[in-house]
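In response to a reviewer's request, we include the raw inputs and outputs for one of the modeled complexes. The three entities were modeled together in a single run.
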Amino acid sequence: MLQTQELQVNIGPQHPSTHGVFRMLVTVDGETVVDLKPVFGYLHRNHEQIAEANSYLQNMPYTDRLDYFNSMANNHAYAMAVERLAGIEVPERAEYIRVLMVELTRILNHASAVGFMINDMGAWQTPLAFGMREREKILDLFEMASGARLMCNYFRFGGVVRDLPPEFIPNLRELLRALPAYIDELERLLRDNEILLQRAIGIGILPPEVALSYGVSGPVLRGSGIPYDVRKAEPYSVYDRFDFDVPIGKVGDVYDRFLVRIEEMRQSKRIIEQVLEQLPDAKGGHINPKARQNVRPPVGDAYARIESPKGELGFYLVSDGSTKPYRYKVRAPSFINLTPLADMCRGYKVADIVVILGSIDIVMGEVDR
Amino acid sequence: MTASPFEIEIPRGRVIEVQRDDTRVRWGGGLLRGMAVVWKHWKESFKLNRSYSQIHGTFTIEYPEEQPRIPEAYRNMPILLYDDETGHELCTSCFQCERICPPQVIHMTQAKDPATGKPVPAVAEFIIEYDACMSCGFCAEVCPFDAIKMDHEFELSTDDHTRLTVHKEQLLRPISYYAKIAPTMWAEVRESALKKLQGNVRRRPDVIGLAPQLTEKIAARRAELAAQAVQAAQAAAAAPAAPAAAPAEGRKLTPEEKAAKLAAIRAAKTAQAGESATPAEAAPAPPSPAPAGEAAPSADKAAKLAAIRAANAAKKAAAGEAPATLPVAPADGMAGDTPADAPPAAPPADKAARLAAIRAANAAKKQQSGDGS
Amino acid sequence: MYDMLTALINGALGWGWPEWALNLLSYILIVTIVLVVAPLQMLFFTYYERRVIARMQDRVGPNRVGPEGIWQPIADGVKMFTKEDIVPQAADRIVHFLAPCVVVAPTVLMFAVVPWGPGMVPVDLPTGLLFFFAISSISAVGLMMAGWASNNKFSLLGAMRAVAQMVSYEIPAVLSLIAIVIIVGSLSINEIIAYQAGLIISNRDLPGVPDLGLGWFVFTPVGFVAFVAFFIAALAEGERTPFDIPEADSEIVAGYMTEYSGMKFGLFYLAQYVLNFLLCAITAIIFFGGWQGPGVGWLYAQGITPANPNGNGLFNVLAGILGVFYFLLKTYIFFFVMVWLRGAFPRLRIDQLMDFGWKFLIPWTLANLFSAALWVAFTRWGPAEGMLITVGWSPVLRWLAAFVVTLAINLGVYLWLTRVYAASQAERRRAELEELSAAA
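The model returned the following structure tokens for the whole complex.
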């Protein structure tokens, strides 16, 4: 009788497909994963503690650095939390601009997330390159509006830092013309690709009950078949004024998450079109002129959550009446979506781990904070 | 799959289930379709395409040969602005940017009037640590004087880390530079910024607040100040010795200092006396009317000449002891309103002469303002 | 080469060298050319691949070193040479050192039987094809040595995968080639090329077809299936996407090459690209006529050949140039396809790769083998061999019958196999799921 031995393999922290510095301690039996222990914290930057030493406004650029793909979404959640805490009104136009920016963020995040996932499957950069191309265009728009591509730091309490520049809307309209073609092309490239199907179908299944018990959110949860979307469940900002659908998956595998992301890009495009229709009628400037940026909110606490591209992103703030938050807590979707990784990987092959990890779409900046 | 516990009401919109059809038998068509997409990209990639509405074509910007298009709002690193015409910095060292800066990389010291030691609305030294700056742009946003703006220059890489601690001389850019990179953004704030600057310039004595690298402007300004001093000195020489002891009383002065000051005060008195007769002579330093660039060489000479003359006058009065006052001058700086507050560095003789002239002018002004109130 | 040298030295110059001297000289020349050409091809391929794939991804690719970046591979080579050669402390130093040599040597040896043009084969072995594949299998030993000696889990995993993959994909590769060998009736690569003269139809299958050098095997159903199967197997042998599992960078870092650096890594790289070149070349030779093309046959017939010793040497050179041009063109087109696949597809998993090889490719190539036998029976056999149906048929009719029958068989088998394969995959997925849920 042959004696077989389980092998422990460290995937990461320096590994090409761990999306940053992330380590998975994998126990394998041959090529089959017996157990997996995610180890993170390599990118810990003491975000929350630093935030408690800063004034409210000073934290805004730090939120950019949480999930560096979606700085606009992070800004939105944080601005909402502070506005709730300090009771700041946001003019309508500012709300529309915010929604516009966050939906553009969703498109760029999903475009690159799909690309990264296929990259982990072994496609040599092509879907990623196509995704990055669309992302670049959106980043150009962000740069026009906010002055920076990634670390936008665009939102302020009571609005956004400056109004959209005049060349923004025409360029956005051109981009919207290209988007359906891009999404269709991405689908044509990948959707029926037999190799992708083999790699994606039935891989990394996350049953809805398990997903709920872990508190998973975002496309991963919807991929498991639960139509939960903060934009629908608790419409914030002006999301109750738009028509859009919530795509869900059937099985909860990698393929479902991939398809949900592609469909969400389409829905985001729909929202942006509606924003463009309604934007000219929107009242108020880009920022509430009465809102002081150097806020000193009354004693109390506030929690604000948004549907960030990666899931439910929440900021919990406690004020002690000073200019600095007494407690500052981030509910990071990447972190919570990462927790069921071991359950998703157990029983699959080593090569599937990276694909499953890619399908969760994490950003280590947000996981480790 | 969607059992009843997961039924969620969706307002405005449907829940759509993705199309999977994973039971279909596939014969490789998906692979061929994928290859067709890639082929199209390959074929189209030979033409350059920067349009937002296209998904094919190369969109690479070949960077060193071709500069990226930078939108007006682009923010890279903070810079300080100064006025092209007068050379005055817009910064008044209000410390707003230093306070807001999240990574706390801005450091500044406020300029002090050398004559009185009182803070002046100008900045003495301004340091930004570019290496730790996160380009958030808060400093530019909070600046009430529009003195700090975000640059478009992004080629900052260097092999010398210390060069990323940037001092005022390297931070300063003319307003025209900023107006060029961000025309509309500057146009919005231009008027208020320049108005505020004019208000501040009036409160800046000597050459404080002038961009240090603009030596010509500084020289011109010095010449102007010296010219005033010369006039004062000449007047002092011409007029009979006035009873000058009174203003000097109650001040702690070294004997050498006293002699120098005496001459200065005398000069000031006469200047004041002359002011009613000829206001133009003793007008309080307006910005130089002539374009300084061209006038500079002659102005420089004139300044030196005037300075020497003034020094001579001072020497005459102080029995050649004026240079000797210099080493002890820093100690006098403690005396609050002592007019003779020399810079710590001991200057050569030529500089000393200038200094004397400046001191005389300062004293003249001091006297004037003292009398006015 | 020997013919040309004889013609030049003893014919044109009239020096009257002995035969052994001419032989020696010609072999030295040949070996020199092969040893120079092999790395040059590798250098060109790396540049070519990077440029092409960049274009596929809407990028520009390396364009900084020299005009359009043509010296980029040279710069890479210089970088490789100047890098520190690191051997892990726990590695088996001797094996670690030997492994790249064992990998590179066979790839260079394989050049021995590759014909570049008419009469331009270094060694015209009667068993050239066998030699080619026998030698190519040796590099698997080198890969295993590399993986084992590195003493690294990723390396070992990569080497295991590489060996498993190479061994299993040699079977469909060889099976698809055997189909061609059955039709040609010879293992000599020159014979296989010579068979492909003609226009769409080989003039050996159907005498009387004009010789334009276009009677390629790929135009027959047997040849087409063999080509597709062989090319897929070649991708696996050459570790190209979608079968680049041994060095799957997103999973096991770089597979067996993980612990190699400097010039040893460069040697692996060289071996890989030279192997890719050879696989593309052999595909071009077996299925696309190698140097065959319009004009080559006619030109060569005018030159000095064993059959025509009084020909003009100039025509030899012209035929050689044209032949090499056709050959390289075809080879580069195949490499383009390899790059194209790399640009388009993700990678299979190792078990799926095995599934595909054993459950799809091997049955398909086996069926193709049967088709090849039928092809021979229809086109060549007479009553003497027991083939009584075709008695009295004209050659055209016999060819047509062969075409239709083999097409029907190959197509039918393909469609049936896709069904069976899909069903087996679904069944497997179901079983895996059951296992998972049972474990949970």
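As requested, we also summarize the result in words. The longest strand of chain A covers residues 300-308. The mean pLDDT of chain A is 85.
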